[in-house]
Amino acid sequence: MIRSLLRRVFSRAPKPKVITFEAHGIARANISPCARRVVEALQANGHAAYVVGGAVRDLLLGKPPKDFDVATNAHPEQVRAAFRRSRIIGRRFRLVHCLCGNETVEVATFRRAHDAENGEGQTDEHGRLLRDNVYGTQPDDAARRDFTINALFYDPATQTIIDYHDGVADLKRKRLRIIGEPEQRYREDPVRMLRAVRFAAAYGLEIEKHTLAPIRSLTHLLQNVPPARLFDEMLKLLLSGHAAQCVARLRREGLHHGLMPLLDVILARPLGERFVTLALNATDVRVLEGKPVSPGFLFAALLWHEVLASSKKLRGDGVAPMPALFQAMDQVLETQTDKLAIPRRYTTDMKDLWALQQRLETRSGKRPFRVLEHPRFRAAYDFLQLRCDSGEAAAELGDWWRRFQHASPHERETMLVREKEPRRRRRRRRTPAVAAESGTSA
Ligand code: ATP
Ligand code: MG
Q: Which of 35, 103, 148, 393 could form a disulfide with 387 if both were Cys (CB 3.0 to 4.6 A apart)?
């Protein structure tokens, strides 16, 4: 403890590179007005304050940042005092949310990771950090971050970037490099392995050799991460606009085992793999076009083939089709939730979509009209289309629903009649040979 303190006091503070506007080209006008106001208010009160993390990285890559975070040496109460419309959030590590209109900027006080070597650490038996909540200096704050490209501080006042770990050079070289000793950093927080895959796929970066090397042997550590945290990170990955590539990379590194226990099984089946790939590609297209994506739809797609397999097994055991489907849905969600806690608001959507697939099979009577009015019809139809495209459902079924939904009320009636007739005729002429055949197509 004392040794660690002495080391911190006497060790020379690392000298960062200070990169000027001429070299990086990011003008303060690129920073959101709210983040600028927050930084100005803090600086006017004598504190250090910078835009930090993902926003600086995204601006350097020429991408619009999702949000702006600010890091400062001011403590939460001091931030509160400097910026009137703000509130303190979080219990273990307190952050401040500063509000302007409908924009929120998150302000965090510089912090450092616990020093595990000196008995100060709060880690589990695998080295996972359980606490990360001690105030620190700016260099401490840079060092606790995950990758060099995420540890950049931008000062709108001087338009300079403060770079302790050569993140700007790494970005230029399209290189993803972890800060510190790779294995220790993954042990502290195994989610960093998923983040590595996501950043590499989403930004077209190469994972630097030492950063990549330990991942394969540490994939099991994902088992110790709380399922809700895994879900959040997995959702970010799936909504990154590069989900197909991310999932391919997860598989290559062996990281998919710990995430979605059922994904291994599904991807091992050709039809399942084709379906998941189509669903991920469709999601990527939507994200890149700026259209909304429903997480329920995505997870329903990822797990569909497992639902199919379970329900087929139950039917083989003599359970009727509809109860078999419902039991299968529950089984699949139960197995999944241990590893990746899919929140209930999404599982409700998923169940709706799955149940509607069965209802879309009927093309006679009143049912198609009721299905058409279901609030989730559109999503269920898109889901069916993916099933048809992957070869799992008959193309003709998807085609029928495409025509049926756009048809006039009169045309719809005629479509139904035509569907019904051949069936009746077949039933009348039923012979043992035909009966056996229809048994296999069920
Ligand atoms: P994006 O929001 O685009 O997914 P981001 O880099 O902003 O990417 P956040 O999860 O918003 O990711 O985190 C903000 C910053 O906090 C990161 O840029 C990084 O500096 C730091 N950070 C986030 N997660 C970790 C982690 N697991 N370990 C260390 N630092 C992290
Ligand atoms: Mg972010």
A: 393
